[in-house]
Amino acid sequence: MRSNNTVAIDSHALGTLNYIRASIDAAGAFAVPGTAGVAMGAVGLIAAGVASIPALTAHWLAIWLAAAAVAAGVGVILVARHRSGIGLPLYRGPARRFVLSLCPALLAGGTLTAVLCQVGDARLVPGVWLLLYGCAVLSATLMTAPAMMRLVGTMGALFVACGAVAFEVGARWHNIILGGGFGVLHLVFGFLIGRIDGGERSKI
User: Fold this and answer.
1) How far apart are CA 104 and CA 137, in angstroms?
2) How far apart (Å, rounded) are the C-alpha atoms in residues 82 and 80?
3) Structure pTM?
4) Does 37 lie in the same domain as 12?
């Protein structure tokens, strides 16, 4: 017969194994900072507002390209601050895998943008951007921390849906859809992810 002491040892060993497994999973995942999403969403809303000004409507593509560059730069800075704040390098381990999983769809989006502009059919650009950005986010979902995986995956799926809608509606709706995707979705999910990240830090 097994003594009570043996049962206690077994329970302790099981708890230790679960802790080690959770630590390994966390070490292999990338924690997306909610502040980056909020900041990128703010840039998206500003771009939508500027591009909706009648005198600037014709320059919507240049406005959104500039906004994409600004949002990417701000996102990288906030991710770097987040990782340095918890003592992790910017571009190693899970962070590197996260970036690499984003790259194929983003590079495809950039290539298609250049091709569409060259043939003079920029009307398809908003749908391409939203669709492929959503695909990039979905590809990176498996690299994110388990607590954030569902939220990030949902955001990616909604971007894909916005891209599908952009292909079906008229050009006058494109700026609104771009603002809804790169502005509103980033803001909402950045806030939700930030709440999860703050809760996880409070447990440490």
Assistant:
1) 11
2) 5
3) 0.79
4) no
For residues 77 and 6, membership in a common domain is answered with: no
Residue tagged 């955001």 (tokens): 155
- Give the range of the structural domain holding residue 18, as residue numbers without chain letter: 1-30
Same domain, 121 and 157: yes
| Averaged pLDDT for residues 177-204 | 80
Torsions phi, psi for 144 (to 5 deg): -85, 165
pLDDT tens digits, 114-132: 999 999 889 999 999 999 9
Q: What's the one-letter identity of residue 135?
A: C
Say if CB 109 and CB 126 are below 8 A apart: no
Cβ-proximal residues to 179 (8 Å cutoff; 6+ apart), any chain? 44, 45, 47, 48, 49
Crossing angle for the helix pair 94-118 and 125-140, to the nearest 10 degrees = 170
Which ranges of the chain would DSSP assign to H, the alpha helix? Answer: 4-27, 34-51, 60-85, 94-118, 125-140, 146-168, 174-178, 186-203
CA torsion angle 95 98 103 104 (round to 10): 150
Q: How far is it, in rounded angstroms, from Cα 122 to Cα 188?
A: 28
- Cβ atoms 21, 170 nearer than 8 A: no
Whether residues 191 and 143 share a domain: the answer is yes
Say whether both 37 and 134 belong to one domain. Answer: yes
